[in-house]
Amino acid sequence: MFGNLDFDVIRRSLPYLFLDGMSFTLMLTGLSALGGLVFGTLIALMRLSSYRLMGRIAGLYVDFMRSLPLVLVIFWFYFLVPYIGQWLTGASRPIRVGAFTSSLVTFIMFEAAYFSEIMRAGIQSISRGQPAAASALGLTYAQSMRYIVLPQAFRNMLPVLLTQTIVLFQDTSLVYVLSIPDFLGAASKVAQRDGRLVEMYLFAAAVYFVISCFASYGVRRLQARIAIVR
Amino acid sequence: MNYNWNWHIFFEPNPTGAGTYLDLLLSGLLLTIKTALLAWIIALIFGTIIGILRSLPSKAASWIGFCYVEFFRNMPLLVQLFLWFFVLPELLPRTAGLWLKQLPNAPFWTAAIGVGLFMSARVAVQLAAGIASLPRGQKNAATALGLTTAQGYRYILLPMAFRIIMPPLTSEFLNTVKNTSVAITIGLIELTGQARAMQEFSFQVFEAFTAATVMYLAINIIVVTGMRFLERSLAIPGYITGK
Known about the structure:
- The structure holds 2 protein chains of 2 kinds.
- The radius of gyration of chain A is 21 Å and the shape is flat.
- By secondary structure, chain A is mainly α.
- Chain A contains 8 helices and no strands.
- In chain A, 81% of the residues lie in helices and 0% in strands.
- Chain A has a single domain (8-229), classed as Orthogonal Bundle (MetI-like fold), CATH 1.10.3720.
- Helices cover 75% and strands 0% of the residues of chain B.
- Chain B has helices spanning 21-55, 59-73, 77-91, 94-101, 106-133, 136-144, 149-164, 166-179, 191-202, 205-234.
- The A-B interface holds A 1, 64, 67-72, 75-76, 79-80, 83, 86-87, 93-94, 170-171, 173-174, 176-177, 184, 188, 197-198, 201-202, 204-205, 208-209, 212-213, 216 and B 1-3, 70-71, 73-80, 82-83, 86-87, 90-91, 93, 174, 177-182, 184-185, 192, 195-196, 199, 205-206, 209, 212-213, 216-217, 220.
């Protein structure tokens, strides 16, 4: 059954797969996670704010993003980002946007909705006495968030945030629909060029599997350590 | 924004010669729903089996359950679909592989089975958590009444667990609907695929995607509202979700 397979194709394309493909995937994952965390925290703060309207807007955004499939959102932003860029820069025509920028904007906006739910749970897990004590000490809202609430919320939610990042790592493979050479896209390009679909897709699956397994094992260990400290 | 909006596009005939662009999108919506329902049935069946295995005291059973879940959770759905669609027919014996390749509607069946198995791992985790959340006394009482393990699961544990995990199952079902859109990569022209096709034929990008967005939102609202009623009527009295 493996008789006419040529696994040497993998060795020959290793530099392309990892230096081009995997570095794109990891870069996209890392930057989207960071951006998603920043925007997600802001959305969570909006959602928990005492201004009803702000909370409403943030809630609508989160519900909206979470009810759409990622593939559709990727297409949306792919066509929308040039127009947003035009609007922001005041250019006379839609600006040209690279594949990386377009997918980065997509994933930041999409993941912000998911990260905000995690951060909201984290903020709510802090007992009420803490912000109350902070304001009794004369800290402003911004200070009490910056020094008291958010560091603890972030720390409590770290395992969940990392798990979501592993999901994000897997989801970045969907940029395939824009024919961007991320890791899977690179594998698929080689597969189609050399007619070696079986070998390349099996290899890609194995790589994703090993990375995700190790990452989630790491998260489980981290969780155990944090749980003892608390 | 210098973009030519044309909302009448939906009522113009589409290039396939059968009906309007709106008909095109609606047929995509129908295919999304069909694929999602079949995938959900598969996810529930396999998820239940694996969820039970994970909750059994036997080491071997929970090891099998653990491996199954890790296998399906640690690969992107897109890669899994590629494995089912491109790789599996090549690895099977020649005749079986050929039969699989020539199957009519191959993208549909691949998508339903692929998404279904992907989601079954998530259902299994939820169900195992639901069973674990039941007080230990329930299982003991079932044994004391003379029920076998199978009977205990059938009559005591599973009915309780499923009622408890109803809310997370609702969101897993919605994830199933959303995940069917990944099958666009193996040539399933479901709702997202039809919106993309409409964009390519008519160049009205934003109208096409807006319509698809509205349809996905509608599915969400309908499912969430329906499930809220179901959850309320199935809630167990005395539990957090119940009264």
